[in-house]
Structures are given as structure tokens and as C-alpha cells.
Amino acid sequence: MAFTNVHSLGIDIGSGGAKAVYLQQKKGGQQFLQTVCLNRYAEGLLDENELLDALQEWLAVNRLLEVQSCCGISPRVTSTVMRRFPQGDRNGGSLQLLADYEAKRLHGLSDEPFCYDNQDFGSCAENPSWSLQAISVCREAIASRNLQFYQKLGIMVDGIADNAQALANAFFNLRPEAAAAEGLQAILDVGQEETVIVIWQDGVPIRFSSIPLGGFTLTQALAMKWHCSEAVAERRKREEDQDWLQPDSPGNQALRGFLGEMQKNLNALLAAEDGGEGEVQVKSPVSFTKIWLSGGASLHHGLERICSREFQCPVEIFGVPRHQLSGTDCPPGYDFVPSLTIAYGLALQGAGLAKLKMSLLPLRHRWQLRKEREFPFLLGGCQLLVLTVLLAMGILMLRLQRKADVLTGKMQNLESCRELVPLLEEKYAAIAHCQRQMLPIAEYGSRAKRYAEALKACQEVLNEKTIGRPVSCIYLADEFSFAAENGVAVTAGDDARSAQHRQPTALTPGEIFNLEGKGVERLLDKDQTLTNVSSLPILKNMFLGGLTVQDQTEYHTVKEIQLKFHEQTEFSNVDDYMDLISPTFSAKYLSPWEKFVLRPEVGTERQYGLFFLQLPFRENLTSGQDITVKP
In order along the chain (631 residues), what is the average pLDDT of each group of 10 residues? Predict the structure, then answer.
């Protein structure tokens, strides 16, 4: 009974009656939802089978057959004792070995298997170095028979406990102050056929037993006194109002005889010694400080007073209080129900609220219950594991799906790029065509601008006011035109491509802008070479030829003209180019002018000299980013 149930059902069944208490734990205490107390004689039932049918019907109507139940067993077929053992090593198992040995001794020499349970009840008050051990033993065949009996009724048995143990648990819960009091006390649950006895000493139950005396025993005595049948005596005992305290009355005599037999059994129980190791002895002098009565027969007329006279001690009846009951009425004049005491103690044990929790279930059934109790935890662990695995798989699936989406997007981009490649090639072809169209524009545009800049510079330099003497310009050309006329390269170190582009491009305007519709194919011919627009051989030099009056040496005048050109912002490193002129060019352009200035009719007062200069521009005309065109 190591587990605690939220719902618990305690069932006490005898031959004369059946009691059940359904207990539900709630915060701040316990609440009894349903209780039932069936008496075969009071209900008019014929036999025990009808009693069991009535109990089963009540359980089915209230839906209590599926509730875990703790059922009682008579102390006559069990042995429940309290023993003292040296504490020793509790965790090491020495106490458990002593309890096992004592259980085997209580069982006797029989080879029949038995089931038992033990519980540590704390330290002894007299000697704290000793430990109290509660031990309960029962034959396995008897326990199995009781288990099958309850299972046939459809009851889910969670535990089987000795009725004396259940009575002690109820006393602990209902009378906690009396349970902790000093002295010797007797707790008696008087039923119809037997009386369950627990001897209490100094707050500890030391004896658990039962005697075959009960309300039916008193009925038999009254039947003999009244000379009637037992049924008539039972009816007269319940219905007739007579003075039970009169010594001469048959009822008083029957009660005194009943209590006399009970006193003999109690004295024998107190004096009994089973010779077991660690047996708790009854202190001397043997006298009860108080007797507690419960059970259905404890409410018999005059039983409480006559019992107090016979035992010479206070007697009090106790039971389950009214405020915790639902379904069972209290007897007239009482605010509790004593007949439900043992059933209440069984319900406490089933709910895990009892002091004594020993169970006499067969070992195989205990294992089965343990599996059933642990199965939800095992199932929950498996479910948690499965959920964890599913969650991990889901996260992994999401990551894989995300990566797959990324890869799919990249593949789609790649496919798009594959589709764009032909379009890009077409665009590259169009760009190449446009660039090739720009070549003559850049070429011819630079010539015109450079030519205009050179004319302006020549007007400023070749001025009589500037030089101080007359100067005439007879030839001004760009380097490409000069190279075409002179037939030689004008700049040393130029590559073949630059030389090739120095030749004037013979393109008509219609061909430049592809108006004929066949310029692209021609420009994209594999045999042609493409270049960058910014790397075209833009006009860099101008060539100037002229005549000037020489007043001193031949080179002094030319040097002065060079210095004047150096002062301009357009040109730099102006140099004489006269020695590099070919004879063909000289004969075509310079010789006629030389003959003109040297003709006889001019006179000899002025001496003209011929000069030819190379005028390099300081900066290129075009500058910008290179545009590369693939063939």
C-alpha cells in the first residue's frame, strides 16, 4: 500500500451484515461520498447470498465496482503482532531479516505457503534503541480464497487487511488523543458473530485478536431465557422496551453472561505469551484505564453501563461522525455510526492515510497490482519518449524541408540563368554592335575637336606680335592624316593594332548606323578584332609646318616657337620633326612653299626658314570606363 489513491473503498462483510465506506480525498481532509450498512436481520434478508446481492447492487448503482478497494479478513485466520527488535542497520536489512524470521515462526511448521507483510512502527518509548515492528501473517490459501470471494462480486481488490488492524487505524484517526494516552486500553468492535479486539498500551497497539462472541451470541442467550426461537429473540431484543439494568431481568442476566465470557477471553489474551522474540509484555498491574466499544452490537440496551460495572473502568462508544457521512443515518440519540468503524479503517488504508498499512494480498496479486500501478508511469514515459522522438523528427524534417526549399530556389535560379544565357549572348552581340558603331564616332569626333584646338593655339602662337617677326603656317594636320600622307609611323613603339587604327575608317553614315541591315554580321565577323572604346588610338599629336623670318641662326627661331607652344595648355614636349619627313611628303607639301618664298622677285631683305613641329596634346580627348566587348 505504498501508493496513495484519490478514491478508496473499504468493505467489511460478515455473515450477519455488510458495510462499505467510499472515501474521497480532498484538500484539507477527507469526505465520505457514499456509505452503506446492511444488516441481514434488520433488512429482512433470508440468507447471506441475498445480503451479497444487495451489496453488489448498491455498488453497481453508485458506480463503485471500478474503485480500488481494501477488504477485511477475520483476525481468526490471521496473526498480527507487534514486536521489538534492536534497530541495528535499518537500510542494510537486519530488521527485515528479523521480521522475516518472526513471520516464519508465527506461521508454524506447516509446509503450506503463506503471505505476510511487516511495517516499521517507530522506536520504543521505553528504549529508543529498539524498533517496533508490526507483522501480519496469513496462509496464502485463505488469502487467495478471500480474494476470489471479493473478485466474484466484481470488486477491484487493492488490499486485504486484518479487521483488527483496520479497527486500530480507525481508532488512530477518530480518537487521536486517546490513541496517544498512557495506560492500558481495550478497543472492542462487537459484531453479530465475533468481537474484534485491539489491546492498546501507552499509545501503541500490542495485541490483535478476536473472539467468537457477538450480538448473535446474546440473541442465543435471550432465546434460552425466553424459551423462544432465535428469530423471535432477535426481534424482541430490538423492539421490546425493557429494563436491561434490573439484575433479575433475563436481558441483564444474558448481558452479564456475555460480558463474563468476554472478560475471560480478554484476561487470557493479556496473559498469553507466544514465546516469540521481542514480544511486547503487558505491564503490571493488569487493569484497563478505559474500554472503547464500536460495532453494530455495541448499541445494545445497557451494554455500555453493564460493561463499565464488570470491568471497573470507563466505557465509551465511538464511531464515524455524522458530518462525514452520506447515505447512512445515525442511531437515535447518537451523532456517529459505530457499525462503520472497521469499514472506515479499511478505507483509510486503501487511501494511504492509515498508520498500519500491512496488506495480506497473495504475492502474485501484489506483483500484478504493482504492474498496474506502474503501467501508467511506464506508458507516460513511453509516450514522452515517442513525443520527443516525433518532435525531434519534426524539427529535423523542418530543417531538411527548409534546406530543400533553399536548394530548390537555387536550382530554379540556375534554370533561369540557363534560360538567360542565350538572351545574354544576344545582348552581348547587340552591345558589341553598338560599340563598333561608336568607333568611327569617337575617331572622327576626336579629330575635329583636336584640330580646332590646334588652330586656336596656332593663332595665339604664330602671331607676329608674339614672335616678333612674320610667321606663316603652310601645313597643319593630325597624326593620322600625316601618317597617311607621309607613309611612315609617327610614334615609335606602337603595336600593330594602334597602327591599324591610325588608318582612317572608310565607313559611310549608313554603314555606321547599320541602316543597310547587314552591319551586325560584318562587325561580328570572327576575322575582325574588337577593342575597348577607351583604348582606341585617339588623336594625340598634331603636325605643324610653316615659314618664319630668320634673323639669326636657323634653329634659334624654331626654338623660340617651341617655347611659345610650351606656354600653351594644350601641348607639351613640342619637338622638331623636320628630320623625319619623307622625301615624298616634302616634295608634295613643303618644297612648293620653299620655292615660293625664295623666288627672285621677293628680294633679299628677308630670309625665310622652313620648320616642321610635332605638337603632342597634354591630355587625351576621351577618358572613362573601359567597355569590354567579347568577339
Answer: 66 85 74 75 69 87 87 89 74 66 71 82 76 86 89 88 92 90 90 89 88 84 83 76 68 80 84 65 81 87 83 90 74 83 91 88 79 77 91 94 92 83 82 71 69 85 78 86 73 41 42 42 47 62 86 75 85 84 83 78 67 83 39 37
CB atoms within 10 A of CB 348: 27
Retrieve residue 335's grid coordinates: 451523532
Domain boundary among the residues 361, 376, 402 is at 361
Which residue type occupies 22?
A: Y
Other beta carbons less than 10 A from residue 111's beta carbon:
5
Rg from Cα positions in the chain:
65
Same structural domain, 181 and 302: yes
Q: 189: which 3 cell numbers?
A: 468492535
For the chain, how many helices (H) and strands (E)?
Answer: 20, 19
d(C-alpha 484, C-alpha 76), whole Å: 143
**Is 46 found in the same domain as 152?**
yes
Q: Which amino acid is at 8?
A: S
Cα 1 to chain centroid distance, Å, stands at 33
Buried b (16+ CB within 10 A) or exposed e, 469-486: eebeebebbbbbbbbebb
CA pair distance 526, 132, nearest whole angstrom: 113
Task: Identify the domain containing residue 552 by its residue range.
Answer: 444-509+531-616
